[in-house]
Amino acid sequence: MDQIIDNLGQRLARRLRLERESRGWSLAELADRSAVSKATISKIERAEVSPTAVILVRLASAFGLTLAGLMLRAEGQGERLSKADEQPLWHDPETGYLRRQVFSRPDHPVELVTVELPPRRSVTLPSSSYVHIRQLVWVQSGSLTIAEGADRHVLGAGDCLGFGPPIDTTFANETDAPCSYVVALART
Length: 188
Fold this sequence. Notes:
With 188 residues, this protein is of the alpha+beta class. Helices cover 30% and strands 31% of the residues. It has helices at 2-22, 27-34, 38-45, 53-62, 67-75; strands at 89-91, 98-103, 110-117, 121-125, 133-141, 144-148, 151-155, 160-162, 169-173, 179-187. The protein starts with a helix and ends with a strand.
């Protein structure tokens, strides 16, 4: 599994640089557009550091992509069959969040992702990550608290939440046990 994560990290670094250069943007311009420091972007593009989920969302949004869209481009996949042992994994170094891209194709409007969120961890994603998608979250095990602005939802195993209009959203595991959930995304 570490090899899959390492390979994705290298591909993601190359993809970010390619996205930036194909637009003719300098590091400074991408930094301005994404609110991510120039030094951090440079280290990510050289695969010296692994970006957090929040940083990846900011970079993807600057390119006009969703996180899933950026990951898909980095993964270079697009097969109809998504074999379990070939599904790309990405690990957020800050939270321990583990993301598996179960299914994604450029010509299909639906994407499936599974996430494992460790105990007592949270991830806040900006509203820009939801602009071009509709999504729902289906908890498989554990408990997940989702805060959409002032709205707070506590989901247990089997519970499902459809997201409202784009807003900064926090996914939190407030318990002492891991939480796993499925995210279904539809591009709009």
